[in-house]
TrEMBL record:
Catalysed reaction, written as an equation: D-glucose 6-phosphate + NADP(+) = 6-phospho-D-glucono-1,5-lactone + NADPH + H(+)
GO CC terms, sorted: chloroplast stroma
PANTHER family attached to this UniProt entry: GLUCOSE-6-PHOSPHATE 1-DEHYDROGENASE 1, CHLOROPLASTIC, GLUCOSE-6-PHOSPHATE 1-DEHYDROGENASE G6PD
Recorded metabolic or biological pathway in which this protein acts: Carbohydrate degradation; pentose phosphate pathway; D-ribulose 5-phosphate from D-glucose 6-phosphate (oxidative stage): step 1/3
This protein's name: Glucose-6-phosphate 1-dehydrogenase
InterPro entries named among the record's database cross-references: G6P_DH, G6P_DH_AS, G6P_DH_C, G6P_DH_NAD-bd, NAD(P)-bd_dom_sf
GO biological process: one example: pentose-phosphate shunt, oxidative branch
Keyword Oxidoreductase part of the UniProt annotation: yes
Pfam families reported for this sequence: G6PD_C (PF02781), G6PD_N (PF00479)
First-tier enzyme category under EC: oxidoreductase
Length: 579
């Protein structure tokens, strides 16, 4: 079967011709219509190898079977049905570029192992680590073995599974801008692929200044000749509209948009994924989902540790770019979008872009910034942000910010979407809080006391830790009198679903393998997101606005309260009676 003959449409298919990658190599290939014959292997043998594995019916996160998604309804690039044998003949190699780094060790290798542990990876898979650090295969295995864990509730065969997984892991040391080094990687990949249809996923777990170098080398020297090639790009995608646009243009010299998987790991979190389910599959919520009933929406992120070792990266970005412009804004878009036509990636992303483009660019007057200072408590001292040796002295980079955003459409006109994000605060938490309006003419007003705010209903989606969805309602305290209190209707995940919740990276890696783009950021979404934040960020930096200092481990600067008060709202996380 010929696989290399023509440039492909933008659909996702397991048999994307190599010309799907725009580069010298593929231009050549498409010009001379090179075809790579697929070696055939015994069908019986392949079937027996595949017996009992989940991968033959893998589902991506929107419920599509993996094969249906990645093989485009079981057709190859020319509409020819692809047999089961052919599907199983393909290989998948996942190359983690920046394998020696923090994210790779902490998240990516463990997520790959978790997928392997639960039989989500295909039969023929290989994992390669790539970085400059000189390591051999065994050293890579030793390095990552310390961070692999088995599901708490399924520890059987854990050691065996780890050994099996580690045997599939290999390492190639190379420079990020060296086409020669990537050619060598290509040769090693080919050996593992053994002439089968090869699908290649590259995870760029590296600093952003080398994204383009790597994509160039991958595109020119290490892309698949007969299968698909996809690249997962980690954030930050630029630091403003211009640099983000420049990055997108540069990447698109070597890749098509459909090959670029811009990851925002918050989209892979269980509760974020559930947001649309909650809204669109329950009759009770959607009718309330508008300015008619909702008084404010709050998106809150806090960490109880500082930049710790990442100060060098962080100082160039700050909390607004690190958390708000991506993670919190993505949640906002999912929260506020109209009902998509379907769960297909483009339908969902079209709705998200519409919301983002309906928003008013953030004004400096609607933002407050803070930075943590050193603090001593119970004989222990906690460092200031500027005590980090990788942070320049006198840095004005915000480690905390609160902002009020507005959506200029009929559904949300006038509703403040308040965001708050900070490092080195008193707790680690991420949540969405929906505050409903006061009950009009309430029969029970006098039972609430003077503070009507205390009596508003609030729906809380606690993304982490202790995933939960709860609704704060007014309730009669049992007894002969008529005393009301606020109680929670509480769906605590650990009680309802005792199974361990997969890490966000597992879901996202699986989707990238399946060619499912719904949870990845499209370039127009990214443009719209930067358009909202860039003017304010520029002004903040040009005016050298000094952040309000807050003690390490505190609840953050008081300015956040004034910002909420400006819109007649209180932060819901400060009420103190959370479940
Ligand atoms: N760590 C985290 O929690 C998160 C990280 N990210 C993003 O993921 C990506 C990777 O993050 P992380 O693992 O923390 O990054 P690291 O700083 O650990 O870098 C990863 C690897 O890249 C190489 N590298 C580092 N600096 C340079 C440089 N200046 N020039 C060339 N190579 C360099 C190093 O490998 P070697 O020297 O061996 O080549 C290093 O091990 C980044 O884009 C980051 O923003 C996103 C979310 C969370
Ligand atoms: O993207 C980032 O996210 C982490 C927080 O992720 P979480 O899944 O642990 O909540 C944050 O620490 C980091 O600064 C940021 O770059």
């Amino acid at each position: 079967m010929a696989t290399n003959s023509s440039p492909c449409s933008s659909s996702s298919t397991n048999f994307l011709p190599s010309s799907y990658i725009k580069n010298e190599r593929t231009v050549l290939l498409s010009r001379f219509v090179v075809t790579v014959p697929r070696k055939s292997t015994g069908v019986t043998q392949i079937h027996s190898r595949a017996q009992g594995r989940k991968y033959s019916h893998i589902k991506s996160s929107n419920g599509h079977p993996l094969n249906a998604v990645s093989l485009k309804d079981g057709l190859d690039g020319k509409g020819i049905p692809v047999s089961e044998a052919e599907k199983e003949e393909s290989t998948l190699s996942i190359t983690v570029v920046g394998a020696s780094g923090d994210l790779a060790k902490k998240k990516i290798f463990p997520a790959l192992f978790a997928l392997f542990y639960e039989d989500w990876l295909p039969e023929n898979f290989t994992v390669f680590g790539y970085a400059r650090t000189k390591l051999n295969d065994e050293e890579l295995r030793n390095m990552i073995s310390g961070t692999l864990t088995c599901r708490v509730n399924q520890r059987e065969n854990c050691e065996d599974k780890m050994d099996q997984f580690l045997k599939r892991c290999f390492y190639h040391a190379g420079q990020y801008d060296s086409e020669g080094d990537f050619s060598e990687l290509d040769s090693k990949l080919k050996v593992k692929e053994a002439g089968k249809v090869s699908n290649r996923l590259f995870y760029l777990s590296i600093p952003p200044n080398i994204f383009v170098d790597v994509v160039r080398s991958v595109g020119l020297r290490a892309s698949s000749l007969n299968g698909w090639t996809r690249v997962i790009v980690e954030k930050p995608f630029g630091r403003d509209s211009e640099s983000s646009g420049e990055l997108t243009r540069s990447l698109k010299q070597y890749l098509t948009e459909d090959q670029i998987f811009r990851i925002d790991h918050y989209l892979g979190k269980e509760l974020v994924e559930n947001l649309s389910v909650l809204r669109f599959s329950n009759l009770v919520f959607e009718p309330l989902w508008s300015r008619d009933y909702i008084r404010s929406v709050q998106l809150i992120f806090s960490e109880d540790f500082g930049t710790e070792g990442r100060g060098g990266y962080f100082d160039n970005y700050g909390i607004i770019r690190d958390i708000m412009q991506n993670h919190l804004l993505q949640i906002l878009a999912l929260f506020a979008m109209e009902t998509p036509v379907s769960l297909d990636a483009e339908d969902v992303r079209n709705e998200k872009v519409k919301v983002l483009r309906s928003m008013k660019p953030l004004k400096l007057g609607d933002v407050i910034v803070g930075q943590y200072k050193g603090h001593s408590k119970s004989g222990r001292s906690y460092p200031a942000y500027t005590d980090d040796p990788t942070v320049p002295k006198g840095s004005l980079t915000p480690t905390f910010a609160a902002a009020a955003l507005f959506i200029n459409n009929a559904r949300w006109d006038g509703v403040p979407f308040l965001m708050k994000a900070g490092k080195a605060l008193h707790t680690r938490r991420a949540e969405v809080r929906v505050q409903f309006r006061h009950v009009p003419g309430n029969l029970y007003k006098r039972n609430f006391g003077t503070d009507l705010d205390m009596a508003t209903n609030e729906l809380v989606l606690r993304v982490q830790p202790d995933e939960a969805i709860y609704l704060r309602i007014n309730n009669k305290v049992p007894g002969l009198g008529m005393r009301l209190d606020r109680s929670n209707l509480n769906l605590l995940y650990s009680a309802r679903y005792p199974r361990e919740i997969p890490d966000a990276y597992e879901r996202l890696l699986l989707d990238a393998m399946a060619g499912e783009r719904r949870l990845f950021i499209r370039s127009d979404e990214l443009d719209a997101a930067w358009a909202l934040f860039t003017p304010m960020l520029k002004e903040l930096e040009e005016k050298k606005i000094a952040p309000e200092l807050y003690p390490h481990g505190s609840r953050g600067p008081v300015g956040a309260h004034y910002l909420a008060a400006k819109y007649n709202v209180r932060w819901g996380d400060l009420g103190g009676d959370d479940s």
